[in-house]
UniProtKB/TrEMBL annotation:
<dbReference type="InterPro" id="IPR022337">
    <property type="entry name" value="Inositol_monophosphatase_SuhB"/>
</dbReference>
<keyword id="KW-0460">Magnesium</keyword>
<dbReference type="InterPro" id="IPR020583">
    <property type="entry name" value="Inositol_monoP_metal-BS"/>
</dbReference>
<dbReference type="InterPro" id="IPR033942">
    <property type="entry name" value="IMPase"/>
</dbReference>
<comment type="similarity">
    <text>Belongs to the inositol monophosphatase superfamily.</text>
</comment>
<dbReference type="GO" id="GO:0016787">
    <property type="term" value="F:hydrolase activity"/>
</dbReference>
<keyword id="KW-0378">Hydrolase</keyword>
<dbReference type="Pfam" id="PF00459">
    <property type="entry name" value="Inositol_P"/>
</dbReference>
<dbReference type="InterPro" id="IPR000760">
    <property type="entry name" value="Inositol_monophosphatase-like"/>
</dbReference>
<keyword id="KW-0479">Metal-binding</keyword>
<dbReference type="InterPro" id="IPR020550">
    <property type="entry name" value="Inositol_monophosphatase_CS"/>
</dbReference>
<protein>
    <recommendedName>
        <fullName>Inositol-1-monophosphatase</fullName>
        <ecNumber>3.1.3.25</ecNumber>
    </recommendedName>
</protein>
Length: 263
């Protein structure tokens, strides 16, 4: 598969940061870890990966702005383009030696996501998507699953933990989805959850209390694989609301209706 110049830039940054993460993952017991909040750990590996990505992308496209998990917003001379980066999505998995974590890089042009890369270095799975060009995993074309009934569907989600989210609301949503589906999975990396929906490994996904860097690349991935994404109200304010519902057309619609139930 021939990749565009911009995807090549993003892949190079993700792979270089991935090599760094893979080395640190192999020595996970020796990582220097600082506590940022309840259950939300920031490791030296996380910071190092972000520095690598920032350096690589800045060198390739000088002047582009950034929105990064650790550094936050970084202004650039080019007000039309912004990189949205999560250098380590699934930090808690990483620190516990669970090989489900990812690097997520998206390019936003004039407020629209036009390219995305999600890379799991532990499994060497590289997901790429470009607006209008489809979605791929290790150069294999992706399509969302074709199941049309929630009763046949396996659905991913995130479950709020200590100090995060509204546990009561999450339990209501979980109860309602449990009663309608064939299974629920909690992987611990929203970016990979969305990549798995794009790949047809999971039929749908919903989560609340997310940040733009958790979502940006994955939203494009799902859409370029033929799927649908919205916020929990059915709109497009995913970055503002921190919520997402994803799946093929039928699953997205059914999942949206299920999680909107009040009790």
């Amino acid at each position: 598969m021939a990749r565009s110049a911009i995807i090549n830039v993003m892949v190079q940054a993700a792979m270089k940061a991935g090599r760094s993460l893979a080395r640190d993952f192999g020595e996970v017991q020796n990582l220097q870890v600082s506590l940022k909040g309840p259950g939300d750990y920031v490791s030296q590996a996380d910071r190092k990966a972000e520095e690598i990505i920032h350096a690589e992308l800045s060198k390739a496209r000088p002047g582009y702005a950034f929105l990064m998990e650790e550094r936050g917003a970084v202004e650039g001379d080019d007000d039309q383009h912004r990189w949205i980066v999560d250098p380590l999505d699934g930090t808690t998995n990483f620190l516990h030696g669970i090989p489900i974590f990812s690097i997520s890089i998206a390019l936003e042009r004039q407020g629209q996501i036009v390219a995305g890369v999600i890379y799991n270095p532990a499994m060497d799975e590289l997901y790429t998507a470009e607006r209008g060009g489809g979605a791929f995993m290790n150069d294999r074309r992706l399509r969302v699953a074709a199941r049309s009934k929630l009763s046949d569907a396996v659905v991913g989600t995130g479950i709020p933990h200590l100090g995060r989210g509204h546990h009561g609301r999450a339990l209501v949503e979980l109860k309602n989805v449990m009663g309608e589906t064939a299974g629920i999975r909690r992987l611990g990396s929203a970016a990979l959850d969305l990549a798995y929906v794009a790949a047809g490994r999971m039929d749908g996904f919903w989560e609340n209390w997310l940040a733009p860097w958790d979502l940006a690349a994955g939203i494009l991935m799902v859409r370029e694989a033929g799927g649908f994404c919205s916020d929990r109200d059915g709109g497009q304010a995913m970055f503002d609301s921190g919520t997402i519902v994803a799946g093929n057309e039928a699953i997205h619609k059914a999942l949206l209706k299920t999680i909107q139930q009040k009790s």
